[in-house]
Amino acid sequence: MPTIAVWKFTSCDGCQLTLLDCEDELLPLADQVHIAHFLEVTGASEPGPYDISIVEGSVTTPEEAERIRWIREQSAMLVVVGACATSGGVQALRNFADVDEFRSIVYASPEHISALDTSTPISAHVAVDHELRGCPIDRGQLLEVITALLAGRAPDLPDTSVCTDCKRRGLTCVMVSRGTPCLGPVTHAGCGALCPAVDRGCYGCFGPMTRPNAPALVPLLKRTGMSDDELELVFRTFNANAEWT
Amino acid sequence: MTIGSDLEVVDMDVVLDLRGLDALIRVLAQDGRVVVGPVLRDDAITLAELGSADDLPGGWGVETGPGHYRVRRREDEAVFGHSAGPQSWKRFLHPPRRALLSSDGTGFHAAPESPVSYAFFGVRPCDLAAITKLRQVVGGPAPFVVAAQCTEPGEVCFCSSMGCGPGAGSGYDIALTERVDGDGHRFLATSGTEEGAAVLTRVPSRPAARHDVELADRDVAAAAGRMGRSMPEVDLRDLLAANRDSAHWEAVAERCLTCGNCTMVCPTCFCVSVEDRTDLDGNAERAQRWASCFEIDFSYLHGGAVRTSGASRYRQWMTHKLGTWHDQFGTSGCVGCGRCIAWCPAGIDITEEAAALARTGGGRP
């Protein structure tokens, strides 16, 4: 039976909990894989190697930079999940600031804190096999990658815009029909156009699609009334470290 | 030639009031068809199943522009007083996702054909042409079509340029022309097929007078002169063929988001990708889903994608739509509905881009 290990780096745990949210599929999944390491489920941990490692979180400490190399060596397939693991996450805001200053302000004894100056995606440290975007990830995409790996097929993870999913769903474009700012045209698909389906604009939590044209979107977002500050917030929150241009 | 009086009865044509229109919807449904038509939903006029004439967007019109669409209250209660919305009949003839085959581990089974028999209600002439072009590619059973001739084109409309409107060409079972004036709210109904004529005999109506037909003809003819846009008067196929290396593609690419909205809203864009799904119980399904030539993966061949730049992807779309569609299907792929202009978040206007190419040389007049 294939083994699965679920690993956490710097993150909030929300993405790995998505696996537990797969309620209907959990029992069939348990019949087909052996969970060797998943601390949100059990404290018991088995030694490697592992067939599939699912990694959540970004690398923000020297210890994490070491640990991800060990996990890579132990894993036949490495699937990284969530905005932290794929782009550095919201904590990558540190990449644009002085971490020493943060340390001195936040901690009473900053000398005990061992942190890197940057928050970086897993792919900056080791080769990854598949990436799932999002803050948090999409449950359907997680099942897609697991079922694909179990069946020995390539997972179907389109790198195109949110708009393609939005239109296939038959939703009416919130930007064109209402003037609601939306990052859908530059954002990586995978959520199934969740926000436009509930009358909100996309705020880009899946990060940039492949070759986005964000410079062309910015004036359109401004036309809908977004200020420069708001623009900086939407592009520099969940995937601050990602290449939007 | 005898000139008849205004009250002379014209063969085959009848006039329906709103009650008659409602009866028409009910008769089509009674015959087992799913009647789909325009409804006001999510601040847009979209397409959905109709139960009665009350579901139609009476009194609602639209204001459109490049990257812009707003519904607005009309001064009258017209039900077809709007131009193309975010959806097209493609959604029903060529669904966004369609299962092709499945396997339970013991063998492969072709997906059953949809048993749904559609009646499309209120099809604009541009969309009537689009249905013909799309069915030429994807096939499938013919829907029953109730066309609504266009008497009020929108700001992004250019069907006249494409020879697809505002009057209904062929391909309808019944064509309606709506009029709201001092004489009331009514629809001139013309049958295009025997089936359409038979359906019309089952709804309350009065015979059409010559005056009714003349008014309808006048309204449609006037609409032709009120198109918001037009294509440059050159051979578009030659224009695109001559402009493969135009510097203009880069200029478009600066504005183009490559989001794929234009292809998704286009009533004739038919491309699909094939996806395979497997579940944890040993079942597999192969399906097709709408794809877009703006997706990088769309041109993925051995080793990589061949159209990675925005310029090459926009060129591909426009060249196929206006040019090489002729080589493939003997007709243009564009009907002039204007959806790609309105629903492009960046407001890229295919008529403007064609005009820009024509200005820089290339097409022969």
Automatic annotation (TrEMBL), chain A:
Keywords: Oxidoreductase. One of its GO terms (molecular function) is oxidoreductase activity. Residues 12-149 form the NADH:ubiquinone oxidoreductase-like 20kDa subunit domain. Pfam families: Oxidored_q6. This is Coenzyme F420-reducing hydrogenase, gamma subunit. It comes from Lentzea albida.
Automatic annotation (TrEMBL), chain B:
The keyword Iron applies. One of its GO terms (molecular function) is iron-sulfur cluster binding. Keywords: Iron, Iron-sulfur, Metal-binding. InterPro entries: 4Fe4S_Fe-S-bd, 4Fe4S_Fe_S_CS. It comes from the Bacteria. Residues 247-277, 325-353 form the 4Fe-4S ferredoxin-type domain. Pfam families: Fer4_22 (PF17179). This is 4Fe-4S dicluster domain-containing protein. The lineage of its organism: Bacteria, Bacillati, Actinomycetota, Actinomycetes, Pseudonocardiales.
